[in-house]
TrEMBL record:
Compartments where located: Cell membrane
Species annotation: Limosilactobacillus frumenti DSM 13145
Recorded GO MF terms: purine nucleobase transmembrane transporter activity
Gene Ontology CC terms, in alphabetical order: plasma membrane
Keyword Ribonucleoprotein: no
Key words, A-Z: Cell membrane, Membrane, Transmembrane, Transmembrane helix, Transport
Protein name, per record: Uncharacterized protein
Family: Belongs to the nucleobase:cation symporter-2 (NCS2) (TC 2.A.40) family. Azg-like subfamily.
Segments passing through the bilayer: 21-38, 50-70, 103-121, 133-152, 172-190, 197-215, 245-266, 313-334, 341-363, 375-406, 418-436
Membrane topology (UniProt): Multi-pass membrane protein
Length: 437
């Protein structure tokens, strides 16, 4: 116990091993769906699904260990669905590039990621973002993950006339989500410790009882081999020799940079890790951790790893140090042999947790200076942009482009740091690259 305290500074963070363990369990259960969704996406690109399952588990575990030991942050690193979808549907299927070359593009982008991290460019960018915008990013991510939770729980569905609409109460999945949401709300209001995790476990049992969640057929199964994907990225770097592939590398770099930066800011804000000057101590080490995780993920055979928004569920349960991330990594390694049991935790079970955490993170809206339009507009665009564009990086870009414009118009241009002007042009280029059809 003393060793853990020395390594992770538990007392300084006002936390305990038990609290970190509960936080890790909550994050793991919220994030465990990635073990099934990511392989399905990668399989569409031609990657062996069994290998993708094992790679997802191992790469996530290693990423969490890197974040825990290097940065001491309570944040999980896992393959991001946005990057996975871009990898499979845009690059491999849309551009007719084989998955081995696409993995090589991810690996090259990862090395560039490490370079700009070592040069502390990422840290400079984050520290240059004003406090109001940091609060907007945190709140925006809260609304975004709540929206994801409502979608996963089938409470919000596609609507041909209004884009989105209320789900049908004839759908049994909706009732599972509603049961979990009401239960978790009651537990949270009653201030029951571990309420989010308890809510998910009881909801899973409820789903089994009503016959909508199947009982697992097996308890333990062997983990598939990673051989079909391991190392292919390194052997295909020479394939990156056309303007189209260079653009793919740059897109991977930009999307992962802004997604990770925005999410890390939000998680740090939620965990109370931002100092009175608006800076985030140790964020350089966190950036290095996710850069290294991106490399190991590419070498194993998966789309880019990044900061998981589901980490917010664990932070809400009291996770404050890297011990949370270490425990999450251990759970992912264990999950490789207990994969049949994970079938009882579908997205309808984890959906209420995301909604509740979204509510908690939205509380940062109260710290934004809404009385000044030049600050309110960029913050508003950031908050709503993340949900409406279904992208953390796009929402962040909208706010970062608007901020210098409104501050200059309000004759407060001297309060804008030089880096924010640089970001203004970078985000415009980012939009031109990622959204030109």
């Amino acid at each position: 116990m003393d060793t853990l305290n020395r390594v992770f500074h538990l007392e300084d963070a006002h936390t305990t091993v038990k609290r970190e363990l509960i936080a890790a369990l909550t994050t793991f259960v919220s994030l465990s769906y990635i073990l099934f969704v990511n392989p399905n996406i990668l399989h569409a690109a031609g990657i062996d699904k069994g290998a993708a399952f094992t790679v997802t588990a191992v790469a996530t575990a290693v990423g969490c260990f890197l974040m825990g030991f290097i940065a001491n942050y309570p944040v999980a690193l896992a393959p991001t669905l946005g990057s996975a979808a871009f990898f499979a549907y845009n690059v491999v299927i849309g551009m007719h590039i084989n998955w081995q070359t696409a993995l090589a593009a991810v690996l090259v982008a990862s090395f560039l990621f490490i370079l700009i991290t070592v040069l502390k460019l990422r840290e400079m960018v984050v520290n240059a973002i004003p406090a109001d915008m940091k609060y907007a990013i945190s709140a925006g991510i809260g609304l975004f993950i709540a929206f994801i939770g409502l979608q996963n729980g089938k409470l919000i569905v596609n609507n041909s006339s209004s884009l989105v609409g209320l789900g049908s109460f004839n759908n049994s999945q909706v009732w599972i989500t509603l049961f979990g949401l009401v239960l978790t709300i009651i537990l949270m209001a009653a201030r029951v410790p571990g309420s989010i995790f308890i809510g998910m476990i009881v909801t899973a049992i409820f789903g089994i009882i009503i016959g909508q969640i199947p009982m697992p057929h097996n308890i333990i199964s062997g983990a598939p081999s990673m051989a079909p994907t391991f190392g292919h990225a390194a052997f295909h770097i020479a394939d990156i020799n056309t303007p189209q592939l260079f653009m793919v590398v740059l897109t991977f770099l930009l999307v992962t940079f802004f997604d990770t930066a925005g999410t890390l800011i939000g998680m740090s804000q939620q965990a109370g890790m931002v100092d009175k000057n608006g800076k985030i101590p140790g964020i350089g080490r966190a950036f290095l951790s996710d850069s290294l995780a991106m490399v190991e993920g590419a070498l194993m055979g998966t789309a880019p790893l990044g900061t998981s928004v589901e980490s917010s569920a664990g932070i809400a349960m009291g996770g404050r140090t890297g011990l949370t991330a270490i425990f999450v990594g251990i759970f992912f390694l264990i999950s490789m042999i207990f994969s049949p049991l994970l079938a009882v935790i579908p997205t309808t079970v984890t959906a209420p947790a995301l909604v509740i955490v979204g509510v908690l993170m939205a509380g940062n809206l109260k710290y934004i200076n809404w009385d000044h339009f030049e600050v309110a507009l960029p913050a508003f665009l950031t908050v709503v942009g993340m949900s409406l564009t279904y992208s953390i990086s796009d929402g962040l870009a909208l706010g970062m482009i608007a901020y210098p414009i409104t501050m200059i118009a309000a004759r407060r241009h001297k309060e804008v740091s030089p880096m924010m002007y640089v970001l203004f042009f970078i985000f415009i280029i980012f939009f031109l690259i990622t959204n030109m059809k």
